[in-house]
């Protein structure tokens, strides 16, 4: 019986020793200065699909969770008022064109009449110098010529005014057409619809949000590192992300941002101990080409751990090495 107890004790000690050694080996990366880690969640750039004008929603062509392509029409706004304004602007342009045509014809007529009055004026001027015409005849011809000349100037001003009205109408037409185009809300890039903020029939003010789009080509994890470690992290440093949902598949990323301002910082930092409490925000971005390849599996909000390689010459431990085909 005593031997059995001794043997059991030896086995227990051996098991504990094995567990301790194994645990030490498995956790040595936590003590390795070549690596650092922080907890975070997957995030992505979000874009709000919003109205330009105050309008009523006519139709929404996307639901939450739908993948959409850049340029795809997502929302149609009611455009009855804009279409009426466009018709009015087009009518004003037609009137301006007609007025310009009429004014141009009037200019030609006035110029012809003015030319005749000018010839009579010049002829009588010559005759007056030879005493072959009376002063009264000359003055009458001169007054008539100047009057015809003024009529030409007025007609030419009418042409310019009509041309300006055409330009103004063209500007209104272009603006209204742009507003009509903007009344079709399109996806600015590929992504997934995260929220439907409004529904058909609702009247929204200018800038009113209809949909929230997640840009799945810009996915990243934000995490925090202490001051002593964050100061060693380089932009472009290699990162491996382990998500809680798939802890056995590391996801490659790289550091794209390290905050220059500490988070949770005391207002006054006087001691070294206090400085060690400073935490800096770090952003690790997943490469767009990888995201595009697995776009249907990308989900934001998933928690996980980001491992950063501080020493670029260090080798990733086994559990952070990339798996071929995964």
Largest sheet: 6 strands, antiparallel, barrel
Can you write the helix and strand succession as a string? HEEEEHHEEEEHEEHEHE
Rounded Rg: 41 Å
How large is the count of helical segments? Answer: 6
Briefly, what CATH class of the largest domain? Answer: Mainly Beta
Give the beta-strand count: 12
Shape: elongated
The neighbouring-strand order within the major sheet is: 1-8-11-10-9-12
Class from helix and strand fractions: alpha+beta
Helix content: 40-55%
Second CATH tier, the architecture of the largest domain: Beta Barrel
Could you explain the architecture of this structure?
It is built from six helices and twelve strands. By secondary structure, it is of the alpha+beta class. It has three domains: 33-44 and 217-320, Beta Barrel (Elongation Factor Tu (Ef-tu), domain 3); 49-78 and 184-210, Beta Barrel (OB fold (Dihydrolipoamide Acetyltransferase, E2P)), CATH 2.40.50.100; 80-181, Helix Hairpins, CATH 1.10.287. The strands form two sheets. The chain has a six-stranded antiparallel beta barrel with strand order 1-8-11-10-9-12. The protein has a four-stranded antiparallel β-sheet with strand order 5-4-2-7. A hairpin with a 2-residue loop joins strand 9 and strand 10.
């Amino acid at each position: 019986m005593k031997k059995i107890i001794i043997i059991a004790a030896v086995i227990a000690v051996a098991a504990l020793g094995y567990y301790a050694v194994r645990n030490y080996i498995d956790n040595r990366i936590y003590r390795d200065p070549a690596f650092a880690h922080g907890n975070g969640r997957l995030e992505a750039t979000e874009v709000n699909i919003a109205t330009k004008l105050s309008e009523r929603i006519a139709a929404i062509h996307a639901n939450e969770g739908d993948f959409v392509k850049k340029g795809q029409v997502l929302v149609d706004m009611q455009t009855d008022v804009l279409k009426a304004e466009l018709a009015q602007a087009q009518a004003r342009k037609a009137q301006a064109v007609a007025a310009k045509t009429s004014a141009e014809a009037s200019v030609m007529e006035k110029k012809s009449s003015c030319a005749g009055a000018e010839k009579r004026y010049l002829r009588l001027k010559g005759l007056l110098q030879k005493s072959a015409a009376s002063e009264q005849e000359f003055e009458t011809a001169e007054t008539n010529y100047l009057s015809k000349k003024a009529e030409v100037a007025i007609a030419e001003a009418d042409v310019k005014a009509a041309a300006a009205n055409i330009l103004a109408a063209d500007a209104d037409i272009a603006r209204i057409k742009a507003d009509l185009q903007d009344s079709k809300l399109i996806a600015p890039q590929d992504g997934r619809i995260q929220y439907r903020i409004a529904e058909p029939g609702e009247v929204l003010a200018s800038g009113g949000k209809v949909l929230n789009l997640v840009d799945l080509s810009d996915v990243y994890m934000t995490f925090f590192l202490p001051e002593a470690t964050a100061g060693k992290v380089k932009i472009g440093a290699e990162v491996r992300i382990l998500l809680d949902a798939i802890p056995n598949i590391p996801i490659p990323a790289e550091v794209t941002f390290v905050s220059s301002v500490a988070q949770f910082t005391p207002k006054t930092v006087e001691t070294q101990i206090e400085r060690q409490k400073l935490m800096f925000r770090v952003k690790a971005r997943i490469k767009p080409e990888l995201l595009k390849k697995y776009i249907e599996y990308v989900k934001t909000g998933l928690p996980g751990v980001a491992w950063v390689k501080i020493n670029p010459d260090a080798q990733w431990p086994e559990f952070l090495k990339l798996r071929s085909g995964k």
